[in-house]
Here is the input.
Amino acid sequence: MTHDPNCIFCKIVQGAIPSRKVHEDDEILAFHDINPWGPVHFLLIPKVHIASMAQLDEGHAGLMGRLMTLIPRLALQEGCRPYPQGGFRVVVNTGDDGLQEVQHLHVHVIGGPRPWKKG
Ligand code: 5GP
Ligand code: ZN
Here is the structure.
């Protein structure tokens, strides 16, 4: 299924729930997390509904390669300081043991000067 009508991030993709966008292209949306851990905290998601990282296979290599390689540019754009003094954390919570709350694959990017609220 491309979209899950009950999925909060699919609703963000479709514009039914507003978000503060960081980046959008044909396949990928990035937007600010509503409850940021640090000065910079945004999420990157594939526009298609993929429940979690556990569902990925080799067919997703292109999509996930494009998603991951957007991170350095977007991190600097959103206020992360340059590597190596700056940098950022990249987190993908997966499943119950991974403390995943929203069941649509998302990659957290958190950065900016510490201290952070979490992480
Ligand atoms: P998870 O625990 O699943 O890895 O993270 C889900 C993240 O989505 C949390 O950091 C939470 O703050 C964020 N989030 C949940 N609902 C919304 C929403 O409606 N809008 C935005 N922008 N972020 C959300
Ligand atoms: Zn979804």
Remarks:
- The two ends are 33 Å apart (CA to CA).
- Residues 8, 17, 19, 31-35, 93, 99-102 surround guanosine-5'-monophosphate (ligand 1) (CB under 6 Å).
